[in-house]
Amino acid sequence: MKLLVTGGTTFVSKYVASYFVKQGNEVFVLNRNTKPQVEGVNLIEGDRHDLGDKLRNSTFDAVLDVTAYRAEDINYLCAALGDVGQYIMISSSAVYPEYGEQPFLEEGERAENKFWKKYGTDKIEAEDALISARPNAYILRPPYLYGPMNNVYREAFVFDCAKNDRKFYVPGDGEMKMQFLHVRDLCKIMENILQTKPEDHVINVGNADAISIKDWVTLCYACLGKTPAFVSVDSTIEPRKYFSFYNYEYYLDVQKQQKILKDTISLEEGLRESAAWYLEHESEVNKKPYLQFIDEELEL
């Protein structure tokens, strides 16, 4: 297939571009060419907000829109596109308000989430813009994405703690559950959508089972042959100062996804891939000062 991937140089969009190249597709990436490109892609250099006629005479079997965060991102790109078959947008579980009934269903309320705030409301507006412009488009709402090429300091932070034999500080009792999806599974879901054109057009995507913080951290440490010692942190201390996630538990109902992709990569396998990549690409991760805060404010 001839595919247009927005972005293509950072984490999800980079992995998506690489995956579909390896599957034998003709992949075009749309970005400003400020970072290295994935091997095998065709670059369309430009800003999605100012494309002029760059795409007007191009045809694509599908657009895989990984970098739409606001309504204007959708509006400018859709106005610039020529002939396009399918359109898949990566949205977010942040569109669901934290007070909503769980597990979140695709048909449930969308509203501001107090943890994600503007990021979530901007995604809502982007979804609405896409539905207006292309009613047959597909919208995917993932929870936390992970895997190789992740430049966000999430699992990499835990790997650092494991590498240095550090204790791991968890909010409260560490039993809060989190839901993940490996970025390769996201690609498989998109691939299956392109092939089967499912009836459902708005789809929650994620592993069927959530996992507690402690169990997830334990799996991360195991990737480096280590076992964590946990320290509980009082709830009065903001978790994002020492931990890479909000202290916010939620579940997505992924029954619609399971019609498309039933079995997802196990966290054990996925985290091993993540650790192997990180040990070779540590400099590509945007680290945050969690360890500094722990050493200065929490370490006893």
Structural summary, described in words:
With 300 residues, the chain is of the alpha/beta class. The protein has two domains: 2-146 and 181-204, Rossmann fold, CATH 3.40.50; 155-178 and 208-249 and 266-298, UDP-galactose 4-epimerase, domain 1. The protein has helices at 11-22, 71-80, 118-133, 155-163, 183-196, 213-222, 255-258, 267-280, 290-298; strands at residues 2-6, 26-31, 42-45, 59-65, 83-90, 138-141, 144-146, 168-171, 177-178, 180-182, 202-204, 211-212, 230-233. The protein has a seven-stranded parallel β-sheet with strand order 3-2-1-4-5-6-11. Helix 3 (118-133) links the parallel strand 5 and strand 6 (138-141). The longest helix is centred in the middle third of the chain and has 16 residues, at 118-133. The chain is globular and about 60 Å long. It starts with a strand and ends with a helix. The model has no long low-confidence stretch (mean pLDDT 97).
